[in-house]
Specification:
Mean pLDDT: 77
Number of strands: 0
Subcellular location: Cell membrane
Distance between the termini: 50 Å
Structural class: mainly alpha
Largest sheet: none
Low-confidence stretches: none
Keywords: Cell membrane, Membrane, Transmembrane, Transmembrane helix
Radius of gyration: 16 Å
Pfam family, one: ExbD
Helix content: 55-70%
Order of helices and strands: H
InterPro entries: ExbD (IPR003400)
Strand content: under 5%
GO molecular function: transmembrane transporter activity
Number of helices: 1
């Protein structure tokens, strides 16, 4: 179970870093699926 816990820790740290980055600089993504005029 050690490798699994290592992966979980890496994922948690990655998501935490990305969350803080998004809070600092919000990026607007235009999805082609939502625009259907």
């Amino acid at each position: 179970m050690t490798p699994m816990s290592d992966v979980m820790v890496l994922l948690l740290t990655f998501f935490m870093l990305t969350a803080t980055f998004v809070k600092e600089e919000p990026i607007k993504v235009n999805t082609p699926g939502s625009v259907s005029d």
